[in-house]
Every structure is written in structure tokens, then in C-alpha cells.
From TrEMBL:
Residue spans crossing the bilayer: 51-74, 116-141, 147-168, 180-199, 239-261, 288-309
PANTHER family reported in the protein's UniProt record: ABC TRANSPORTER PERMEASE PROTEIN, OLIGOPEPTIDE TRANSPORT SYSTEM PERMEASE PROTEIN APPC
Residue span of region Disordered: 1-35
Gene3D superfamilies: MetI-like
Record lineage: Bacteria, Bacillati, Actinomycetota, Actinomycetes, Micromonosporales
GO biological process, one term: transmembrane transport
Protein known as: Peptide/nickel transport system permease protein
Lipid bilayer topology: Multi-pass membrane protein
Domain of life: Bacteria
All copies of domain ABC transmembrane type-1, residue ranges: 112-306
Family that this chain belongs to: Belongs to the binding-protein-dependent transport system permease family.
GO CC field: plasma membrane
Length: 318
């Protein structure tokens, strides 16, 4: 038997036993190697990242408090008795009572609903605007890109908090629902620029790929190419930016409510409670510390979660 026939016979025997060192062929257990993808690599990195799990746990906890606050607080946050003013922990109020005799912990728990609602809806509207503007600018280029890029630059140059104060002054005397949606709309209209620039960059990179050229040669229209081929590549970086932006929107809402421009009582918000706690800080510091801690941990959780996802999807960091 020649050397060639010997090698061929050995390879055939190895293949029948399921032993092979070549990628994509059956391994020792007879199972083919799974094709690796960017999403698969990212998920593998996220599973081994403790920062991701800690931040995700905090986000899930805040979301649970916003959806079902009664599971975390035994008392009604609006059940206020002046005789309990600045009283210590008792009757389920683990952090005592504020200057109005309200349960400090219950108000912090129920305050997650308004803050998370403002942040989530602002991020959602921001994502829609950013995807539309970024995809149009990045895909068509030319004068479309020039016009939309100048619009992005103009909005980017407007100070978010200063413009929000000016715009929200006009609805300061409106009802609670009107003020709530006014805050959401103002934050979204002033905070979409960074996400739009990220989407635009991703679309510019994706439109030069071979699969886009192949789809165009097969007769696919611009709408189909943008929806089926460009959008999936633009979503991942947009989600990262919007996750971080969600935390920023929560902090911005608390700042506006603290200044008396955003949400107002009887709406329960961390910013409102921080302002009230600041006024009566000499009598008791707990009503200031508790909502401030909830706010800081929530914002930090979303920023850490966004950073972890960004690092996992960045091939340069592997």
C-alpha cells in the first residue's frame, strides 16, 4: 500500500470514529463545531463579566419596584401623619419618616415608577428618531447626509438642561399627566443626537459590505435593503447608546424635578423627595439619603450595563 493510500485509509477510519482536528468536522463526541457569530461571542463574554450581572440585577430590581412596588414596601407612601414627623424606624418604615410623616422607604420605592417611566419612554422615542435620521443620513449620503448632519450638530449644541427648563416653564401649571409627557418629549427631542451619529456611522460601514451590493444587484429596493440588511447591523450599537442614555434621562428627570420644573407633587419622584429632604436635612438626613441612593444606584446600573454590552460587542477588546 502506498503512502497516499495509507493516509487516506487513516483519515477514513478517523472520520468513522468521529475524530478530526479540522474545524467544521465532527469532533470527539461526533458533534460539529457551532458556527461562531458576533452575538454568540458577545454573550459568552457577558456571561463571564460580573459587572454585567450586577448591573442587570439592579436594573431588574428597579423595574420590579416600578411594576409592583407593593411587593417591596408595606406602607402606603401617601399615608402621611404629621405626628410621625422625622420619627425613627417603626411599623414597616425601615428608614423612618420624613417631615410630613410619610414612610421614607415607601416613597423611594414608589418613586421608581415615575423615574423609570420617563427614562424608558424617552429612550424609546430617542431610539426611533435616531434610527430614522441615522439610517437616512448614512445610507443615502450626499445632500441628505449633509442636511441631517447639520441638524444633528445644531441640536447637539443646545444645552439639554437649560433648554428643558425653558421649554418646561410653559407647562409648569399643567396637570400631572401633561407634565409627565412634556418631560418625556422634551428629553427625547433634545437627547437623540448621540445615538443618531452612532447609527449613521454603523450604516455607512454596513452599506459598503458585499451582501448589500449583492442584494442591490438582485433587484432589492432601498427600503428592503435598509430594513433587511442595514437595520440589524445598526441596532446593536444603538442599543448600547440608548441603555446608557436611559440612565442619563432618569438623572435629568430627577434634576428637573429637584429644580421644580419637571414633575411635581402629588407625583412621587426621587427628584421631588431629594428636594424636600434637602430643605429639612438638619432635622433628619435619612429622607435625603434614601432617594439619593436609589437614584445613584439606578443611574449607575444602566451606565454599567451599557458599558458591559458595548465592551462585549467591540471586537477590538477581545
Amino acid at each position: 500500500m502506498s503512502d497516499f493510500e495509507t493516509v487516506a485509509a487513516t483519515e477514513n477510519q478517523a472520520a468513522r470514529r468521529g475524530v478530526s482536528g479540522e474545524p467544521g468536522t465532527p469532533g470527539r463526541a461526533g458533534r460539529p463545531d457551532r458556527a461562531r457569530s458576533l452575538a454568540g461571542d458577545a454573550w459568552r463574554d457577558l456571561r463571564r463579566n460580573p459587572v454585567f450581572w450586577i448591573s442587570l440585577l439592579l436594573v431588574v430590581l428597579v423595574a420590579a419596584m416600578a411594576v409592583a412596588p407593593g411587593l417591596f414596601a408595606a406602607n402606603d407612601p401617601r399615608d402621611c401623619v404629621l405626628s410621625r414627623q422625622h420619627a425613627g424606624p417603626s411599623g414597616g418604615a425601615i428608614f423612618g419618616y420624613d417631615f410630613q410623616g410619610c414612610d421614607t422607604f415607601a416613597r423611594a420605592v414608589y418613586g421608581a415608577r415615575a423615574s423609570l417611566l420617563v427614562g424608558a419612554l424617552s429612550a424609546l422615542i430617542t431610539g426611533v428618531i435616531a434610527l430614522v435620521v441615522g439610517m437616512l443620513a448614512g445610507y443615502f449620503g450626499g445632500w441628505v447626509d449633509a442636511v441631517l448632519s447639520r441638524v444633528i450638530d445644531i441640536v447637539l449644541g443646545i444645552p439639554l438642561l437649560l433648554a428643558a427648563i425653558v421649554l418646561l416653564k410653559r407647562v409648569s401649571t399643567s396637570g400631572d399627566t401633561v407634565r409627565l409627557f412634556a418631560v418625556i418629549l422634551v428629553l427625547a427631542l433634545l437627547g437623540w443626537t448621540t445615538a443618531a451619529r452612532v447609527v449613521r456611522s454603523s450604516v455607512i460601514t454596513a452599506r459598503e459590505q458585499d451582501y448589500v451590493a449583492a442584494a442591490r444587484m438582485l433587484g432589492a429596493g432601498n427600503g428592503r435593503i435598509m430594513w433587511r440588511h442595514i437595520l440589524p447591523n445598526a441596532l446593536a450599537p444603538a442599543v448600547v447608546v440608548l441603555t446608557i442614555a436611559l440612565g442619563s434621562f432618569i438623572a435629568a428627570e430627577a434634576t428637573l424635578s429637584f429644580l421644580g420644573i419637571g414633575l411635581k407633587a402629588p407625583t412621587i419622584s426621587w427628584g421631588i423627595d431629594i428636594d424636600a429632604g434637602r430643605v429639612h436635612m438638619r432635622e433628619s438626613a435619612t429622607p435625603l439619603i434614601v432617594p439619593s441612593t436609589f437614584l445613584a444606584l439606578t443611574v449607575l446600573a444602566f451606565i454599567m450595563l451599557g458599558d458591559a454590552i458595548r465592551d462585549a460587542f467591540d471586537p477590538k477588546l477581545r
